[in-house]
Amino acid sequence: MSTSEYSHLKISGPVSARRLEKGEKFIKRRRLILLLGLTGTGKSSFIERLSGDTTHDISGNSLDSVTQDIVPYEVTNLRDAPPLSEQVYLIDTPGVCDTQLSELRLVTSLQAWIKTASLPTVVLYFHRITDKRLCGSQRKILNIIRGLVGEPKTYKTWTGIVTTMWDMVPEHQLAAAEERLRCLKENHFKNICGMDVRVDDNVLRFYNTKESTLQVINDAVRCWSYAGVILVRDPPLQRFQGDKLRQSPFGPPLFELLQERIEGLEQRIQMLNEDLAQEGTLDNPELTNILIQDKVSAQQVLEEMKRDREAYLSLAENLPKPSTGRRITNYLKNKFI
């Protein structure tokens, strides 16, 4: 594999993805790249392609979320180009809008992971270019992502958008896909990338190949290196943890999404009860068994999300005001750092 096309990477041998063992630590000089996105947008496939085959079965080849935990992978024989020469790691996460996990639980789990592991310097948000429209929940997720990473060119973490599924677009539909991308950049992605930056630099493309994965990593490292010297503040994702969650820019919209998920599950359970009560259902044991299993599954998820709601509401809504000295320190930090 030629390394000349990856100007910001150093490849020292066969590149692959190795899942870190439980308790295994990152090396001191590391580049952590966090992968976020809706279920089925290609985060796990992005990692899987580094191995050149599907024997790892990271993605599962389905639209259901395969990743249910935060999983770090070492990209073997791959580092930043000198002088940093940092080992590259990819951090896989459960899919946003996963049927089994609330977005609030995902974010708090990610915060806990960062507290014990390390803050990623690059965040990549994955979006399917084959989605012909941006639904309401997707718009809300984009706003939450903006709340997590903060104002562009201000915090330590650089954020990029990875558009996926380009390999699934037929040639006669490429023009329509390009037009969708243009509209997304203009109307939605700028909110994350920043109004005063070239959005094209922050929006990358994944073609479901190993070469494409390496190119995305290379371009992300390149963009970070251009902005890295001024990215010195901790992003909101790291700053608003624990009791501070309700005061964060992403806490209230996460809670709103959670409420919608709970209401949707309650409606689904009610519909399943009505289906089970219909005349003739009990005469069909196979159908009855399917409906009962769906109901039990929905009830289990509902209870989990109600616990998430209780945990959020138990947090302090208004924290005590900091001392005068602390307020002066925070003012100077926000003004000059």
What can you see in these coordinates?
The structure is a single chain. The chain has 10 helices and 7 strands. Helix 8 runs antiparallel to helix 9. It has 2 domains: 231 residues, P-loop containing nucleotide triphosphate hydrolases (Rossmann fold, 3-Layer(aba) Sandwich); 74 residues. It has a 7-stranded mixed beta sheet. About 2% of the residues have low confidence. It is α/β, with parallel strands linked by helices and 337 residues long. The protein is globular, with a radius of gyration of 22 Å.
Q: What CATH architecture label of the largest domain applies?
A: 3-Layer(aba) Sandwich
Helix content: 40-55%
CATH fold field value of the largest domain: Rossmann fold
Q: What's the average pLDDT?
A: 85
**N-to-C SSE series?**
EEHEEHEHEHHEHHHHH
Question: If helices are DSSP runs of H or I spanning 4 or more residues, what is the number of helices?
Answer: 10
Number of domains: 2
Q: Strand order, biggest sheet?
A: 1-3-4-2-5-6-7
CATH class of the largest domain: Alpha Beta
GO molecular function: GTP binding
Keywords: Coiled coil
Domain G: 33-124
Coiled coil: 255-282
